[in-house]
Structures are given as structure tokens and as C-alpha cells.
Amino acid sequence: MASLISPGKPIPNDDLGLGLRTGPARGVNKDGSFNVRRAGRPLFRGYELYHSLITMGGFQFLALLFLGFLVTNALFAAVYLGLGMEHFIRTGGSTRLDQMLDAFFFSAQTLTTVGYGHISPNSHLVSAVAALESLLGLLSFALATGLLYGRFSRPHAQMCFSHHALVAPYRGITGFMFRFANRRSNQLIEVEATVSMSFLDGDNQTRRYVALELERSKINLFPTSWTVVHPIDESSPLHGMTEADLRRSQAEFIVLIKAFDDTFAQTIYQRTSYVADEVLWGFRFKPMASLGPDGSTEFRLRDVGAVEAAEGAQSRM
Amino acid sequence: MASLISPGKPIPNDDLGLGLRTGPARGVNKDGSFNVRRAGRPLFRGYELYHSLITMGGFQFLALLFLGFLVTNALFAAVYLGLGMEHFIRTGGSTRLDQMLDAFFFSAQTLTTVGYGHISPNSHLVSAVAALESLLGLLSFALATGLLYGRFSRPHAQMCFSHHALVAPYRGITGFMFRFANRRSNQLIEVEATVSMSFLDGDNQTRRYVALELERSKINLFPTSWTVVHPIDESSPLHGMTEADLRRSQAEFIVLIKAFDDTFAQTIYQRTSYVADEVLWGFRFKPMASLGPDGSTEFRLRDVGAVEAAEGAQSRM
Amino acid sequence: MASLISPGKPIPNDDLGLGLRTGPARGVNKDGSFNVRRAGRPLFRGYELYHSLITMGGFQFLALLFLGFLVTNALFAAVYLGLGMEHFIRTGGSTRLDQMLDAFFFSAQTLTTVGYGHISPNSHLVSAVAALESLLGLLSFALATGLLYGRFSRPHAQMCFSHHALVAPYRGITGFMFRFANRRSNQLIEVEATVSMSFLDGDNQTRRYVALELERSKINLFPTSWTVVHPIDESSPLHGMTEADLRRSQAEFIVLIKAFDDTFAQTIYQRTSYVADEVLWGFRFKPMASLGPDGSTEFRLRDVGAVEAAEGAQSRM
Amino acid sequence: MASLISPGKPIPNDDLGLGLRTGPARGVNKDGSFNVRRAGRPLFRGYELYHSLITMGGFQFLALLFLGFLVTNALFAAVYLGLGMEHFIRTGGSTRLDQMLDAFFFSAQTLTTVGYGHISPNSHLVSAVAALESLLGLLSFALATGLLYGRFSRPHAQMCFSHHALVAPYRGITGFMFRFANRRSNQLIEVEATVSMSFLDGDNQTRRYVALELERSKINLFPTSWTVVHPIDESSPLHGMTEADLRRSQAEFIVLIKAFDDTFAQTIYQRTSYVADEVLWGFRFKPMASLGPDGSTEFRLRDVGAVEAAEGAQSRM
Fold this sequence. Notes:
Chains A, B, C, D: Residues 160-292 form the Inward rectifier potassium channel C-terminal domain. Chains A, B, C, D: It is found in: Membrane. In chain A, strands 4, 5, 6, 10 and 13 form a five-stranded mixed sheet that branches. Mean pLDDT of chain A is 81; it is low at 1-17. Chain A is α+β, with helices and mostly antiparallel strands. The first copy, chain A, folds into two domains: 46-153, Helix Hairpins; 156-309, Immunoglobulin-like. The longest helix of chain A is centred in the middle third of the chain and has 30 residues, at 124-153. Chain A starts with 35 loop residues before the first strand and ends in an 8-residue tail after the last strand. Chain A has helices at residues 46-55, 58-83, 96-111, 124-153, 243-248; strands at residues 36-39, 88-89, 120-121, 159-161, 165-170, 173-182, 188-200, 207-212, 218-221, 225-232, 252-261, 266-275, 279-281, 283-285, 289-291, 297-300, 307-309. In chain A, a hairpin with a 5-residue loop joins strand 15 and strand 16 (297-300). The B-D interface holds B 113, 115-117 and D 113, 115-117.
């Protein structure tokens, strides 16, 4: 572990903005979210509403829409019932239930602007409430459908990462590497990778952060997969560490991928992390592509994490 | 103050584009807007309308929408009344008020395209006006609902800054620092900070601007908070100044934060400023995060400005 | 003119991508468009339609919308008439004109989905055509209203530039300068300027391009105005030139401004150019801002081009 | 071929992220798509649906919309028929076919919210289904019309490239060059070009990648065309190669163009490639522009690939 805090290697602390003093748990979850619980933030604020509605689950969102539709109609139905159903032209029955349901369905026909007209206002007061409801319907459906389409078209990366990172032979020395591919068929351009390591400093057990130099930090085109490699030469903070060292220092490798989505002309990001338990020693990645009979390359996405034993593997980086 | 205009330190003037000669007032307000009044700009121009409608208050916007709905209906009602209500199939009363209200509500049912049909055109002229009104309704509701959703989904930063900036011990020397956190739960990436100081030059009392070097000007991830630090070493324009110097030179620290909003794939900016009265000497920031029982980090947003007395504080930078 | 082609000053040719050999006319028009006529480009192609509809004049666009509404209704009315108006439930007259207008207005009520119902289909064939028309109406109004809102909300810079560029004293030497301000009240951030000169090379009268070094090419904040300055020192390609030299070489100064619109989170660009006739010698810009009684700065947009005679003006750069 | 693997020229392998070991076929197709077949990717996943709907052919998309409309109406018609057409107020006939078509057209009038009312619900159950259908109609038409407009307004580059790349005399040496122009009339700004060569390494027949240095890799304005040139000096990996060498090594030149679309404020990319068979030796590009009678420049897009024999052509680069 001494190599991590040797005087000759100035370690930029807090390089990621992760000003955390976490315990044994990981700082970045596998899906890229931060392992942080926010307290003191108001649960319901205007600026959070849009964010919640865009990011909540799809089923939850549709249920909320449906519920909002039911509740709004129930409220307007109550107003119409309060004004009296004698203010309507209608053909329905005269029981209380008939009146309530007619009021409810008239409301629904007004809110959606379908307006069949078999139930229609027969007094100015009801007409005024119905005009207001149709205005409200147009505005609230604009928000609902805007959100629906916004959710549908929201750009988001769908990289699939190898489940393990590897410590494997690399050009005569050893390299720390992982692989990822694009799960979607959109075209990604100018893909950039940043890898940082967080670890417990041997002396005072405070968590430190250090950026890892990559063999290559940007590629122009990304048709298939990219194996990101940190060469473990003498200048690497990993140099000389063993598998036990990695676990003892609770090392976590934090990955940030940035890319330009050519199909939708937007920049997207994705994060993930590897903890010491997710680092394999003595394996290498199997190829994901092979040449098809027609000369094109067949690419197997499911093999992104496929590994095989590597010769010449070392127990020390 | 001599340090500010010493010959060895070339000061880039007008570095921010704030070509202002303000008096004692601040150049940038606490909410990031500029303290400038624009004259000679036409009050109503096409290119200002969209901007006004997007940035006006929410209540004001909804009131304007409602007013527009009322006025448009009143105008079309006047046209229908002018043509004569005998051109309509209707079941309503025959008083003047009945006619006026029927005209108004027919207009509302046409503009919203709800079209119940219990009032409907019975002449070609009225049909033509109604066709025009429904076309106008579709187009104007498209603008209204587009604006409503545009306002709702407009990206904007919601950083909360510490109320005070601090002059506090920092790695053996003194540092000028402030802290900020993200109030929203959207994920911010690649956060950049720029800090400039504006001050009255001691000799000729003209306002000058100088950029302050930061310990770190960019962080990759921003899960919690960031304490931005300008180390006051010998090359700092603040070096050797006292609290009284700061006030006398009417110093203002102008902060520009840039970040990429990972949730919505957009770049956002936020500005703020600290004047001399908002700089505390001899305090340091209290931690905002603590380790929860389950190993995750709890982060208290309300503590972004919490300070405590610092040992070894100096009265001179 | 010798200074423009002196051997010590390698001039990057074609620096702007303006691979033009124009005659005396300017390459970039005052409004930033290129003085180029494109031939051989198909007049009507799918990928041009959206562009044309977004950039055409507002009155023209609305007229096109209205015309499209009339024509579509006329076409569907013809179909309904062809099928026979006896297939409708209607209360209108029986003359040919009555039938035609009823068909037209039924079409309008279907296309806009207002659907009063006083005219309604009474045969399956007419119902099928009407269902098709309402589907078409929803889709085409989606395009029309999308375009309407897209036009309304399209980001575009509204810089106003000084009408003249100046050759004026600047820090002991001479500078080439112009001034611009933001006409809109949106907040611009990180404003960048690029200035290039195009001129006829004295020897072979071919047009060359050279980038001009600026005193400052980027400002962080842009609350008021920015005077962009090219200092004419010995390394400047303008060094030693007279007003007559500028005109003889048909010099044109091409300006590209880039900014980030903080209000709408989008990057915007604006271009303009100054030809030799638009360069004033021996003047300087008058201030645009003055201190208001309440300490805020009043900024006069109309003074962006206001100049006054400068002392110490030279007839040679 | 020795020049390609000479020790003094370190060749960055895999520079483009094209981790492919293709055979004789090209890696990047003429239209910029990758010559890769993806296996193991689920054919139908939520995150692929939006992408497919945006990128499929226009006729296919409209057919899908129409089919969806038919199927949805057929399904709801089946529900209404199941409930019994006696639950409707209607004027139509009593045969089974009449009932089926009335149910179908009532559904269509509800889904599009046109709601004439000549067929209208006469029971609460039918009213409830109709309310649900109108809600579904509003939501699904929001997606359909959002997609329709999203397709219409999606930014995409429409560069047209010269069909051949040339090896031609260039400033005393030889250059590898191609030309492209913007087919659309939108304004492109800050256009950048990247050119890489992929080839079979003579020794072990594995495919290698090398970036080619360009005379200029970025231009600020792009009014007409740009001839991108790689000067073949001694440091070029092409230096000394003959036409036969190019073919034998199955060389492919991969082009990536990046530009900012000034009209729509979006960054766009376009790719293409040239294989050895598409490289002409001993020709040069003919001018695309000529001076019009009014002093403006006429630009012929169709001449982007026009070439003429070049004097002094060499058979070796």
C-alpha cells in the first residue's frame, strides 16, 4: 500500500467532487447513481416535480395520469351535481347514481374535448364551468402529453459494461481494464472515458481519490466495443499492489463515459463503478466480433463480459 | 491595497465583459442577474415576447392565458351577436343576456374544439366564422400549451450557495472559499467554477476586474457539495489585504458555475456574487455529510452555509 | 500593401472556408448571410421543406397555413359532394350552394375535431371518409402547430453591431475595433469573437484571408456591450496600411460571434462584416452606460454605434 | 508498404474504436453506417422502440400509424359490440354489419375526440369505456404526433461528398484530397474534419488504423465547399506508396465531419469512407464556383465530384 502514498506521487484529493467519507459501502452504485441520501431537501418543490415526473417508473407515471384523470373528473362532477343536474340536457335516468355518473361522464367528455353533446349544458352557470373545464383540460393534457413524449424521447445512454474489471497482461506489463459496448443501435461518436480510483489511505484511513491514466481516453467512432486500459507502469498508483491490497484499501474504480449520440444530436453520459470484489486477476476478455460469411463483422453484445484465462498472469501489479 | 496595483502583477481589465463603472452598488445581484438598467430598447418587440412569456412568473402567465381565453371568446361572441343569434340552432332563452352568454359559450366550445353541438351554426356565415375560430383555437392553444410545457421543462440550475464566503486557513496559508450544493436531485456532471474579483483601484477609483486562480476549477462528479477555494499565496491579488481593505475597495467576488445536467442532457449555468460584507474572517465550513447507519452517506442540504470558528485565523490574507 | 504579403508573415489562405473568388462585392452581407447563389440544388427536396417552413417570413407562414386549411377542406368537401349530401344528417337548405357549403363546413368541423354534430354522417362510406379526415387533421395540425411553436421558440442571436468599425488610438498604438451589444434581454455567457480579413492580394489580385489577433477573444459575462479590438502592432497584417490601401485591396472584415444563451441553454452564433467603406478613421466610441441615481447602471442600446472624434488619430495604421 | 510499419513511425492502433478484424469488405459504408451486424441484441426493447420509430422510412412510419389507428378502433369496436349496440343512441340500421360499422366509427370519433354525437353512449358502461378511449386517444396521439414532428425536425447533415478521393499535386508535393459541400441551405459553422486510414499490415495481415494529418482540420464558415487535403510529406504513412500498394493493403479512408448547424443550433456529424478503388490518381477537382454578372458567386453543387486531368501527376506518393 505504500505506493499509494509515496511522497513522490502527489495525489489530487477529492478529484471527483465526491467529498464523502463513506465507510465500507461503495460510493457509486453499479447503475451509476451515487450512494448518498439527501436530508433537509424539501420533499415537494416545483423544481423537483418535473424531474420526478420524467424519471419515475413508466407504470407509476401512467397510473398517476389515470388517477389524475379520475380525480379531476370526480371533482368537476361534484361541482355539476352541486349546481343540479336539471341544468343539463340529458337523456339518462333520474336516480342519484344516474345523475352522478352522467355528471362524471359529461366531465370526461368536456376534459378530453370529445364533446358528443348527448349530455350538454342547459344553463349559463354550467356552461361557464364547462368552458373552464375544457380550458383546464387542454392545458393539463398539454403537460401530460408533453411529459409522456418527453419521457419517451429522453436521451439516455445504454452502455453495457463487463461485469468484472480485469488485471491482465498488457504489452509486456500489466493493465487494469474493463470493456463496454453500446446496447442501443444509435450511433455514438467521440466517446470519452474517465477512470478514477477511490481508496482508504493506509495511514489515517481517510478516503482518497486519484485519476488513472488511460492508454487512450477518447475514440472517434464506436461501432462495437471499447476495452479501456489503464497501463500499470511505475507511475501508476496501482503499481506493486496485490489482490489483497486492493480489498484491504476498499478500492473502488469509478468510471465516467461521455459520448455524442449522432442519431439524436445530444451529449450523453453514463457512470458505473467496480469495487475490489469485481476485479478478476489472471483473465482476459474474449473477442466479441467475428467475421461473417458475407464479409461483414458479426458482433455479439452478450459477450461483453466474457473472459478466458490469460497466460503469464501475475499476482502483483 | 498596494498589492492590487503593483507593477509586477498585470491585471487584465474588463475580464468579464462587465464594462461598467458602477458606484457603491454591486455589479451582480445575489440571484445572478446583472445590476444594469437597459434604456432605449423597445419595450415590445417580437423577439422579446417569447422570452417574456417564458420567464414571467407562473401566476402571471396563467392569468394571462385565462385573460386571453376570455377576451378571445368575448370578441368572437361580439361577432356572432353582430351576425344575429337567429343564425344558430339553440335551446336557450331569448333575452339579450341569454343571447350574449350563448354566443360566448358557443365561442368557448368552438375555440377549445369541445363542440357539444347543443348550440350550433345554422347559417353559412356563422359556420365560416366558427371554422375560422376553431382554426385559430388550434393554433393559439398550440402556442399556449407549448409555452406552458416549455416553462415547465426549461432547464435551470438550482445551486444553493453558502450565504457567506470565508477567509480561512487552507493548507498552511489562507484561502478565500465558498461552498455550494445542488438543490435539485438531477445529476450534475463536469461542474466548472470561475471566480473573478471586481474592486475600486486605489489610485484613480476606477473599477477593475481580475480572475482568481482556483485550487481546482473543474470536478467530474458532483454528488454532494463543492467548496471552491482560491489559495491566497504571494501571486494572489488578495495577498496581504485586511478586512478593512476589502470593504474600502468595494470588492465584489463574481461566481460563474457551469455544469452538464446529466438527467436532461443540457448545459446549465448559474451566477452569484459575494460583496465585502458577505465575507467572513476566521470561520470554516462545517461538514454537510455524515455516515448513516447503513453505510450510505447522509447529506444535509440546509447546512451548505453552516460555519464554525476556525483556529489559527489571521486578520490579513 | 507590401505588408500583406511580406515573406515573414505566412498567410493562411482560405481560412474561413470561403473558397470564393468574388469580384468587388462583399463576401458576407451585413446581416451575416453569404453572398453566394447556389445552382444545381433541387428546389424542392424533403430535407429543405422543414428548413423553408421554419425560416420563411411569419406572414407568409400563416398565409400558407390558412391556404392549406382552405384547400384541404375544399378537397374533402368535393369528396363528400361526390358521395352525395343525402348521406348526411343535416338541417341546411337543398340548393347546390347550400350543399357545397355544408360539405365544406362539415369538413372543417371534422378536420379541427370540433365536431358539433348538427351535420353528421348518415352512411358508412361518409363515416369512413370522415374518420380518415379526422386522423389526417390530427397529424397535419401536429406538424402545423409544431412548426408554429418551433418558429416562435427558435433561438437566434439579436446582437446589434456598431454600423462602423473604427481605426482609433489604442494603448499607445492603433487598434481596429467595433462594438456590439445584445438587443434581447436573455443572458449571454461565454461570448467569443473571431475576426478575419479578406483582401485582394496586391500581386495577382486573388482574394486571400487572414485571421486577426484580438486583444481578447472571449468574455465570460456579457451584461452590456463589448468593444472587440485588434491591436495593430508590427505583427498585424494591417500594420502600415492607409485608408486608401484598405479600399484598393477591397478589404472586408468578417466577424463571427458565438455565445451561450443562458436563458434557453443553447449556443447561438451571429455573423456580420465590415467593408473598407464602413471603417472610420480618427473616431472613438462614446460610452453606452452611465450611472443612474440609484447606483445601478443605465445602458443605452441605441448608442452602440455612437462615435466621437479621437485625439491623436493617425492616417496610417 | 514498408513505410507503414517502419519503426520510426509509431502507429496508434485501433484509433477509431473500430475494433474489427474485417476481411476484404469496407469497415464504413459509403453512407457512413458501420459494416457490422449485431447479434445477441434483443430485437424488441423499450429503448429501441423510439429509435426505430424515428429512423424508419417515412412511408413505413405512416403505414404503421394508419394500421395502429385501424387496429385500435377495431379492438374498441369489438368491446362496444360485446356490450351491445342497444347501449347507444344511434340512427343507423339494425343489421350486424351496420352495428359493427357504427361501433367502429363511434370508436374513431371518440379516439380522435371529434365526437359528432349522432352516435353517443346511452349507458354508463359504454360511457366509461368511451371515456377511457378518449383518454387513450389523447395520449397515443400525443406520442404519434410527437414522433411525426420529431422525425420532421430531426437535425441531420446532408453533406455531399465527391465520389472519388484524389491523389494530386499539392504545393510542390502530392496530396490526398476529397471535397464536400452542404446540400441543404442551412448555415454550417465551425466545420471540422477527421480522416483516418485503415489498412492491412503487410507483415501479419492484421488491420491497423492511423490518423492522417490534415493541411487544415477546421474552418469557421462553410458557405460553399471544402477540399480536405492530407499533404503526403515524408512523415505521412502514405509516403512512397503506389496505386497497387493501396489496393493490396485494402486501404480504406474513413472520414468524420462535425459541424454546428447555425439555423437550428445543433451539432451534427456525418461519416463516409473511400476505399482504394475510389481513389483517382492524376486528377484534380474542377472549380465549383464562378462569378455571376451581379458580382455574387454562383455555386454549382452538382460539380462537387467534377475532376480534370492534372499536370505533373505522379505514380507514387
